[in-house]
Amino acid sequence: MEKTELLVAALEKGITYSAYLQLTEELLSQGKTTGPNHSADYVHYTNLNLHRMKRLDKTVEINADLKAVIAQIKTPQTWLVISEAWCGDAAQNVPLLQKMADLSEHIELKIILRDENLEVMDLYLTNGGRSIPKLIALEKETLNELYTWGPRPATIQTVMNELKAANVTEISEIVEKIQIAYNHDKGQSVQNEMLAVLTNYLN
Questions:
Q1: Alpha-carbon distances of 103 from 38, 74, 77, 84, 95, rounded to whole Å
Q2: Which of 67, 74, 180, 182 suits 60 as a labelling partner, its CA being 20 to 30 A distant?
């Protein structure tokens, strides 16, 4: 399939953020998560992520500078977000992307699951990897690509790079250190990066 056909098919399968939360809850009630891996670890991380997303929904505010830039958007667009419920980076960033989208009548956010849409994912690799979340902003009528963001803010990537340099391979330790970094960041880095992305797009 060509890129446009893949995007059309993905958008047809896309779900809202609220439906994504509901899907996550339903799967957890069955002892499962999204994707093919339903191991105890993945289900555990998914449960933590659900609580994080709900907490961020209640606590995070979009800053004034970013609000002002979002208010300038006049082109109807779809924010296609590639995600999975077990992904810690997705849990930290997708709620903020939704809060941004909520600020504009011209933005509609839809979520697709990575492992059910690998052909789309492979169009948006990060250093050759299928890293998520990934935001692809598309003009609603033409599906022309406007801009992208993801999978994590540079500040958090720096922590990941430091862990790799220190040869830290234990998943639980990596998850803990990344979580601490996100807690300190309080959602500011993704907002700063999206402010830069949107400013560049509008100019």
A1: 35, 12, 13, 24, 13
A2: 74
